[in-house]
């Protein structure tokens, strides 16, 4: 424990951000990191609890009190080693994780939690800056080969663990670049993409081959993977977006959030956005935009619409407005339901809750509005409020209502793996095996739409399961 009385003396201070009026002019990250002294102080707030609930709150079970202590002591290199022992990509989670660890921090019961996420991010950013992060090339190769399908955080962490165990790993990715939703879902202003490129270089040096623009089930058959690899890991994500089935939703002014976000990320990368634009180029510039869906994807659409110069941005949600604050004695150490205001929300948006969409309003095939009705919620039952119908003006309606499971395409057909009732690939979290021999599944493809940190956890655990299946034992951590 760094400083025994740290939590009594020092208040929580998190990273700050550039002024919203300035940051909406660009797509770059805008957080202002702590000074070294500031980080040391924040790490000193950690109480090194006998039972550190933050370990369990964190899906990769980061050993948080240990690296907090090391940061307090100025021992950054060891802090990095401890952090990497549980998390392959802390620079991703240090930027985009919602930090359930902080909800379960013991200090959070009576005070503000330790700024765990910012400290995690600072440790790994420093590691890259100092040149401490190097490829970890295995001393021996096993001669076993593994095909990983999908290069999101699940596929990346799985591939990296397997390569470090000595296996020869090829990652197949249908997109033109590696990273999954980190690359084409999450906007650059939340996480710049050079961070993925840098890891890709490290992974290639560790012996991993990336085959981009190659869809398994289309460009390469599952049969050929079976013939050429000893094991297959399916990490293809949960890509089937939920569609809004109301009159008028077929109009071209109603678009999926991922179409919109992917195009902007491609523009930022200097790529031809039309390669991701089957229904044509799409921007919010000068438009009244309505985002349907209150989650991360919806928030990213808000931030991107503001950067593109939308005339107005409204985000609507079917569920009622959550409470401003949680009842900590009831919720701790679990993730509480409460109102969350993202940095994108701070940049400007009208947020409306308990709203049901009825119909897309149009003139000559052009979207002009969205007819809605207000709802009353009683427990899980919703009731339309009589006479509360209204029309919100809209030129562009973005659907950000979540994902219903993996796309039912060649990969699932050809592999013939069993699916769960919810349409995800069936595999348990003990051995990550699907119903087909030596085919494993992890990440959103197995668990359904989730978080980057859960994808990293599943990729790591699936790698251990594959290693055990190939070698009869595994020294990889779970
Ligand atoms: C807009 C948006 C914002 C988000 N923001 C956050 C956030 O802030 N924080 C957070 O923690 N989580 C966030 N998430 C969720 C998070 O991104 C996902 O949970 C995570 O990326 C899942 O990782 P994955 O590796 O399982 O799948 P994915 O990241 O979806 O990667 C799957 C990859 O598999 C590829 N693939 C699929 N089928 C094939 C095939 N047959 N052949 C070859 N390749 C294939 C896909 O092209 C894709 O690249 C967000 C999600 C979205 C959509
Ligand atoms: S990965 Fe997420 S939950 Fe785990 S320590 Fe980092 S911010 Fe917290």
UniProtKB/TrEMBL annotation:
Gene Ontology biological-process entries: glutamate biosynthetic process
MF annotations from Gene Ontology: iron-sulfur cluster binding; oxidoreductase activity, acting on the CH-NH2 group of donors, NAD or NADP as acceptor
Claim: Chaperone is one of the keywords in the record: no
Keyword annotations of the record: Amino-acid biosynthesis, Glutamate biosynthesis, Oxidoreductase
Domain of life of the organism encoding this protein: Bacteria
Keyword Cytoplasm belongs to the record: no
Pathway assignment: Amino-acid biosynthesis
4Fe-4S ferredoxin-type domain residues: 36-68
One Pfam family it belongs to: Fer4_20
NCBIfam families: GOGAT_sm_gam
Name by which UniProt lists this protein: Glutamate synthase subunit beta
Organism lineage: Bacteria, Pseudomonadati, Pseudomonadota, Alphaproteobacteria, Sphingomonadales
